[in-house]
Design goal:
The chain is of the alpha/beta class. The protein folds into 3 domains: 7-13 and 74-164, Alpha-Beta Plaits, CATH 3.30.70.270; 15-70, MutS, DNA mismatch repair protein, domain I (3-Layer(aba) Sandwich), CATH 3.40.1170; 172-261, no CATH class. It is built from 14 helices and 8 strands. The chain has helices spanning 15-23, 44-47, 57-63, 74-91, 111-114, 117-132, 144-154, 167-171, 184-192, 198-202, 206-214, 226-234, 243-246, 255-261, and strands spanning 7-12, 32-34, 41-42, 68-70, 95-99, 102-106, 136-141, 159-161. The strands form 2 sheets. The protein has a 5-stranded mixed β-sheet with strand order 5-6-1-7-8. Strands 3-2-4 form a 3-stranded mixed β-sheet. A hairpin with a 6-residue loop joins strand 2 (32-34) and strand 3 (41-42). Helix 4 (74-91) runs antiparallel to helix 6 and helix 12 packs across helix 14. The longest helix is centred in the first third of the chain and has 18 residues, at 74-91. It is flat and about 50 Å long.
Amino acid sequence: MFDKATILHADLDAFYASVEQRDDPALRGRPVIVGGGVVLAASYQAKACGVRTAMSGRAAREVCPEAIVVEPRMSAYSQASKAVFEVFEQTTPIVEGLSIDEAFLDVSGLGKVSGTPVEIATQLRKDVLDQVGLAITVGVARTKFLAKVASGVAKPDGLLVVPPAGELDFLHPLPVERLWGVGPVTAEKLRDRGITTVGQVAQIDESALVVMLAAAAPAGTCTRSPTTATRGRSRSAGAAGRWAPNGHWAGKSGRWTTWTRC
């Protein structure tokens, strides 16, 4: 299983805003912001203007004055999510939900029944669009970590496969922000040191990387046990490639995510 790309990361595109555009034809193709006080979601048309999630409503309207602001409809999003997860469960019995709009799907062992992972991913995207009316992006890889990174690169409305033999070739040119769990603070700390790509991170000595990223944390915000911190660091991008082929630690355990947020 672990030597083949059989893990799918399926992620709905601009979920809340896409549901609004699906349900109201007048919103399609137009910049849509969900949430007035704080931006909960933005359509890709709004994102193209510079609108970002968690931005204040005032700032969002300043950068995108033509945007249409709608109030969130949580019940509609919940219903759409339930319908999408039903499609996931029709695709494979092994589904690990990460949030209301994304999940990992393990399609190993389905070759004789459903086809190759790429064929399964292609059909999944079609089924979600046909049955729920929403676009979904899928990353296909050998590990959860790589599949999630791949889906992020493939957005919006895309499909990207990372072949096992090309994992490092795929990862190393990517900007550091593409690493799952690397947020703005960590990315800024790395960029301040001239480190802009995953490949550059992979060349850094592990102890130096630990010190560098620990310095990115605001005082008093990190509560991690020595065991968790050590295990998370041991498979960091500073491990000169060891972390990339393995990668399962960054899935359900979330150790990389926890550490980089500290």
